[in-house]
Amino acid sequence: MGLRIVVTADAAAIEYKDAVAAELEKSEYVDSVTDLGLHAGEDVDYPHLAVKGARMIKAGEADRGVFLCGTGMGVAISANKVPGIRASTAHDSFSVERLVLSNNAQVLCLGQRVIGVELAKRLAREFVSYTFDPQSHSAAKVEAIESYETGEPEQA
After folding, report:
1. CATH classification code of 3-150
2. Where are the domains of the chain?
3. Residue 109 annotated to the active site
4. Is this prediction's pTM over 0.90?
5. Quick one: pLDDT at residue 55?
């Protein structure tokens, strides 16, 4: 069974969002792509879009997301406000790999003003191809991150 992906972008990244969504729709790892917008002519600030997408993942309505803005940083910060969501900007292949394999992140954030569209599409393809191994040495670190969200850290 493939992944259910949610994509969203603010006005600074509509072009890349559309390109990434089209790329992911062709992926063997993806069953569905939900586009939350923005679409041409709409005007919604990125925090609202990123939180909406992150809440979909948290609710089990999507498995992962690719969120875009000018730099990727604003949507990452916003998505991380949703407890249980791990989102990060990554603009290279190694970082995308570690985003999933080391951190079990659900959201890849990209910046249209920072990288080219072909790189954005490649990174999104790579992001959906990785699967976190809950038996890996990174599992304990992910559990530690999660424990801070509940207010019960294992150690400080």
Report:
1. 3.40.1400.10
2. 3-150
3. no
4. yes
5. 98
